[in-house]
Structure of TIGR03747 family integrating conjugative element membrane protein:
Amino acid sequence: MARDEAPARRVEKKRSGVIGSLLKLPFTLFWILLISMVCSIAIEWLGIYFDWFSQAGAEHARQTMISEMGYLDSQFTRSLLVSSPVEFATCVVNTGHEWVFVKTGIAGWVEQGADSGGWAATIRTYLQAAMFVTLMTLTRCVILTLTSPLFLLAAIVGFTDGLVSRDLRRFGAGRESAFIYHHAKRAVTPIFLTGWLIYLSLPFSIHPNLFLLPCALLFGLMIAIATASFKKYL
């Protein structure tokens, strides 16, 4: 009787683990967005304080934001998720700006203190930089949302290739390695989430394909390795 209950418990535990992971995913993505935004603002403020950038004040953050929005206008004119990516991105950025800066009065205070000097001008510069960085991060979130089918495609290709390799190993003399399987399986989620975190936190403008394509390739590769090294017999 105890032997019959053990497999059922394992299946139930596995199902609850999958459901729990799916329920935690939105909160995980929210924390990634929040942490990356805080890191981006901190890096930008340090750059202003230590004069790391060639542009003065908040100009570096503004130029970076403009460059990121330019990628949307020129590179993401079509999408599988929305009919008009540019309009969707503009709506998201404008809504974020309205709720975070306009309704809180931050944008109005910054505009009113445009001609001020002293410590008020310094605070205004740092707040302007934070505004531009926040809008830049929202723009990158839109880019990640629009490119999410790329990671889905990489996962499907990696899973299919892994199944083929597993079948060849099953019907051949291939050896199975639990070490490779468990380490490849553990690396799938960190690669996906860490790639997003680094991309959102970068303090300079970068073409999305230069970063997202290698991440998607590595993501699919880990899925292929984990699937191919899965145990021969269920």
Q: What stands out?
A: The chain has two domains: 55-136, 147-234.
